[in-house]
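Tokens as discussed.
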């Protein structure tokens, strides 16, 4: 009889062409599946809560797989962490209900985007920030981001080729934090996100911060449903999938994650 296993995964996206398997390119999904297949000696498919793009990181990706095996969840976690490269860590492996689905059962996702706003480039972990040299108007960015909260048509911030039935999404939180020393985080939490949506939002909010557009104009861009009116897509390296929420998973009490992968903290708390 098959057992359903649920994984919570952290990964540095820099070495990978995203989550989903791609021809002749390394991906997170393929790397984990190859290890599991070696363990159970038959093909295993790992399904995530959603795809992340090439270069995008995760500290709370959730995935599931099914296997007919006597291996326990604890042994799966220990073995995977011994086999996987340093860029991927399995934080949790546990059995789940047979009908659990990492993608379809997800209720909310939280993303954080990190910016270093200073003239000098970071020498450490540069692949986890977007550096912007000119000063950003944080107050204007906060005012613009507040327009995103609620249920809206986010077509203006959708990437081409997005697999979706509708471009309407509900955003529970959208906020901008200035942590000092040039570290700025933009956090978005909602029921679902379109392809490139977070990166397109960030790129347009940065335009507000650089006075290329105004908070009122940002609101107009949202209402226009016209991608051509929004800003450029922010680069992938600053984006983190922080958490995926399900009905049976309590809200994490931590506000920051501190790790050698992302020193100075990764914002987890509410806006």
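Sequence:
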């Amino acid at each position: 009889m098959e057992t359903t296993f649920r994984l919570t995964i952290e990964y540095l996206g820099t070495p990978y062409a995203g989550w989903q398997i791609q021809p002749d390119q390394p991906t997170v999904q393929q790397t984990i599946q190859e290890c599991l297949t070696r363990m159970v000696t038959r093909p295993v498919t790992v399904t995530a809560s959603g795809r992340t793009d090439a270069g995008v990181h995760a500290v709370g990706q959730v995935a599931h797989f099914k296997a007919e095996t006597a291996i326990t969840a604890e042994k799966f976690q220990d073995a995977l962490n011994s086999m996987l490269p340093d860029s991927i860590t399995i934080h949790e492996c546990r059995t789940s209900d047979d009908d659990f689905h990492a993608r379809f059962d997800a209720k909310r996702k939280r993303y954080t985007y990190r910016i270093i706003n200073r003239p000098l480039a970071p020498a450490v972990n540069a692949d986890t920030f977007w550096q912007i040299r000119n000063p950003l108007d944080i107050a204007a960015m906060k005012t613009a981001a507040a327009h995103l909260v609620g249920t809206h048509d986010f077509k203006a911030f959708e990437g081409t080729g997005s697999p979706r039935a509708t471009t309407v999404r509900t955003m529970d939180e959208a906020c901008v934090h200035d942590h000092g020393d040039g570290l700025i985080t933009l956090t978005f939490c909602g029921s679902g996100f379109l392809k490139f949506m977070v990166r397109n939002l960030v790129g347009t909010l940065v335009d507000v911060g650089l006075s290329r557009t105004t908070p009122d104009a940002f609101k107009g861009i949202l209402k226009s449903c016209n991608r051509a009116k929004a800003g450029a897509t922010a680069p992938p390296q600053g984006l983190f999938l922080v958490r995926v929420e399900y009905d049976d998973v309590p809200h994490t009490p931590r506000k920051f994650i501190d790790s050698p992968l992302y020193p100075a903290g990764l914002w987890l708390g509410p806006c």
